[in-house]
Structures are given as C-alpha cells and as structure tokens.
Amino acid sequence: MPFRLPGGGPRISVDNDRCELYGICAMEAPDVFDLGQDGRLRFHTRLLDETTMEQAKMAARCCPMQAVVMRGELDG
Amino acid sequence: MADGDRIVIVGAGVAGLRAAERLREQNFDGEIVLIGDEARRPYHRPMVSKALVMGTERPSDVGLSHYLPDLDVHWRLGARVTHLDTTERVVHLPGGESLWYDGLIAATGVYPRHLPGAPRHDPRVRILRTVEDSMAVRRCLNASKKPAVVIGAGLIGNEFAASMRHIGRDVTLIGHAKAPLHRFGDRVSSGIVEAHHEHRAKLAMKSEVRHWISTKDTVGLHLTNNQLLVASVVVLAIGSVPSVDWMRGSGLDISDGVLCDSKLFAEGASDVVIAGDIARWPNLRFDETPRRVEHWINAVESARHAADNLLMGQSSAKPFTPLPRAWSTLYDTRLQMCGMPSLAEDTVTLADGITGFIRDGRLVGISSWDKPRAMLDWMAELDRRLPAPDYVPEPEPAPAPEVAEVPTVEPSPAALAADVPPEFDSGFDHQAFEREFESEFANDIPTTAFPALAAPPTTAFAAQPGAAAPPTMAIPIGR
C-alpha cells in the first residue's frame, strides 16, 4: 500500500437527500458503515486499504437509493 | 475467455452494467459490447416509480456509476437484439446487422405485463418501466387535475400510490387481492392499508375493471365493485413478463425467463450466462427448483457472479446462492424483505415489525416493517440458519483463476463454523415452533456469527425508536 498524502486517496460521502437508512451499506461494508441502534448511519470518509475499498464499492453498487458517492482514485 | 475474445452483453440495465464492470475487475482484456434497447446509459430504475414520477430527481441525475478507472465498453444503445443463434454464436440486430461473440451475458430483464382489455392506445393508460414512461405519466398528471389510478397492488402499484399522495394528487389503487402486498405477511399488509388510509389514498381491493371508457378527453373505469372512476392517468402495474422473445428459436428453454443451471449458465449452452430478472436458476441454499428473482440487488449480485463464472468456464464455475434482498419505501416507512417468503407455508412474528416465513419448520424468509437496524441482525440470523451449501468442485483439474469473493451472499466463515441449528420436525407444529423460537431468540446471546452486535437481536428492537423517529442524517466520521 503506497503512502498517501493527507487529503489524497479515495474518499466516500453519503448523499443525505437520498439516504433512507436501509443499512444495506452496513451489510456490504461493515468496516466502513455502521447503522447504530439509534438508527443513525456512521461511516469512515477515508478508505485506508484495499479491503475497505472493495467493501465500499460494493456498498455503493448495492445502495438502494444510490446515495453512496465515491471520489478520488478508484483503482485501489 | 482468452485475450482478444469478445463478450456481448445484451441488456443495458443495472445487471448489464455490473456484469461489464465485473469483467474488467477480473482483468478481462478483450472486447465488451453492451447492447441496450433504451437510448440511455444504465440508470437507477427503482426511481421510475418514485423520485422520477414525483419529479424530485431529474433524468440526468439518475445514471448509475461504475467504480473503475475505465470501463472500456462499446455501447450499442437504442438497439434491440432480434435473434440469438447459439450454434453460430451470433446475435442479430435490426437492419441485418449481426455480431459474433465468444461469450454472451443475457440480462434483458422484464417488461410490465399487459392487462387484457386495457386500451393501451389511450395516451393516459401507461406503464412504468423507463425514464420516458415516468415523464409520460407526469405529462398526463400536468394535463388534468383528475385523480390518478393504478391497477395492481404489488410493490410498484403501492409505491406509485404513495408517490401520488406525496405530490398531493388523489389516487385510487385497484387490486384483485384481498389486501395490498399480502404476500409479505399480515403485518406488512395491514401496515400498508393503514398507511394508505392515513394518507387518504383510496383502495379498491378485490376489484377489477369491468369496462374501460376511453374518449378523446378522458379515461374512465367502471369497476366490478360498481365504482366509476375518471382518471388523469391509469398506470398498469400488475407484474411483469421476462423479455426473452429475442431468444426464441435459439434452443434455450425460455418458458419462464431462461432456464439455467445453479451456476447461471443457460441450459444447453456453455458460453451463455444469464443475469438479473430473467435467470431461472436453482438457488441451492433453498432447494433445487429453478426460480426467478425479480429484485434489484439480485440483479447486481447475479450479474457479478455470472461474469465471474463466464470467465472461469462452466467446469470451474461456482453455484450462485444468494439470500435475495429487496426494499421499498411506502410513505415514510421502509419495507424490507430477505430470503424467499414466497416459498413459505406459514408465517410467525419474530419481533415487533419482523415477520418470519416458514417452510417445513425452517425459516426461509423475513419481512420487516420499518426496522432496518433489526433487519440487519435478522438477515445475519437467516444466513446462519440457512447457509449456502458447501460447494464441492467437480474433480477436474482445471486451471482455477483466483475467484473473487461474492460479498455477503456467502456466509461468513464464522457463520459456517457456528453450530448448525437443531432442525425442526418435518411435520410442522406451529406451537412447538413458536416455543422453540421464543426460547432460542428471546435468550439468544450474540454468537460469533455477528460479533459486531452489541446486543442480541431481540433487544435491538426495544432500543430502536418507533416509526415516529425521523430518519436521521448519515454522520461522516471525519479525519
């Protein structure tokens, strides 16, 4: 894993206008997303390694509302 | 598949896109041709009956992304394949065009079913499948203040009715079943009836259209319950039929979708795989009966699996054994489903808002009424109780390229290692089953299958605020 400068590298965000908190992302990417007992979705914005990267991509693909947005270099 | 090969993907919906994406992820470096009959690149079709028809999303904003630096696909949009020749390995297109392939992925999806007697030539009688369909419905709504009517009490019918109320239009939902969404269990069914009443959407259940009155200015419906409705638009949402006409005469079995083996290869062709709604395959997690699954997430997962299997070849391919998942939003309620509820003979209430579906004393499906957090735990539980069978590859020393995991559809190693739950008697005893469920679930301690759980599933519901709690925002954990 090459060293990345702060601010670089792949990042994710969630479109709150679309997200309806189904938690499919938490199922696909448990290391990135967490749907808490309070119904809130928490997530890491930086993807630090290949595992979380692949998980996050799968969460973005399966999101029912297509609310997961990925930015930056996506080749892992 | 080898270098320089050409893979043709027929169908440019979500399944076609995800299949192409997976081929490139697996380093397939041949040519990919993606053929679609719509003029648009793949978009998020579930929005057609919701955000698009309400006008809260624009058509230009609903395209699907891929997550690769370069997808490198040749698009053939606005072209409908007319014929498939599996012997010559050629698909035929209008105008005499033909396209050879080394591998074919068929993902043409389904088309809304026609209601006999419905005057589809009337511009106010519509279906909801494409972006253009949703725009046409919006034009009808803008042209008249009369109520909207939707025929069909399935997911799309209910979603459309809720969408109409959301934008302040009167709507009547007509269905011949006794209650909307009855196959999701009584809890969901009574919940949606209540929600429609609360939002003043009208229901005409156990009814059908006796006469259509289609004039130049208006469309009217005379129902079997003697109601007369005059509508601005009538949407037909009575299910769908697989779009497989183009395979007629190809030798494939297209009696209901395309008959496949458990690995999604079309029966009778070793270079054709099927993805999405048209694949009729035996999901070995449940049994050996081939069935179709018309869910959006299944299109994503089956497309990726089909792409993997096509690259590996039939002998080293792996069976596709997902736990199907589906969702819908009706008004502010999130409805979710997992497994195969349609197989069940009986239902049982597992927890507040969670219905279990039982076949032969085994849990085969779950539906939930606005309980997404609890649903995560119950889906893990269903995965543990209904694990994908261990696959023993055929004893042929084939060069096995590294198989990427199919996320979530396979049980986690922990789930496999967990004790196999005691089987219930094959003669189903409802009371004994409920006792067993209570003793197993009420006192369940978190197992290794879901170590992330802070609390056992049953307490998860108590901790969750009721339907009154507004959906909260997603919170980035920034750094």
UniProtKB/TrEMBL annotation, chain A:
Pfam family, one: Fer4_15
Top-level lineage group: Bacteria
Sample GO molecular function, one term: electron transfer activity
InterPro entries assigned to the protein according to its UniProt record, in alphabetical order: 3Fe4S_ferredoxin (IPR001080), Fe-S_cluster_ET (IPR051269)
Assigned keywords, A-Z: 3Fe-4S, Electron transport, Iron, Iron-sulfur, Metal-binding, Transport
The keyword rRNA-binding is annotated on this UniProt entry: no
Cofactor: [3Fe-4S] cluster
Function field: Ferredoxins are iron-sulfur proteins that transfer electrons in a wide variety of metabolic reactions.
Name of the protein this chain belongs to: Ferredoxin
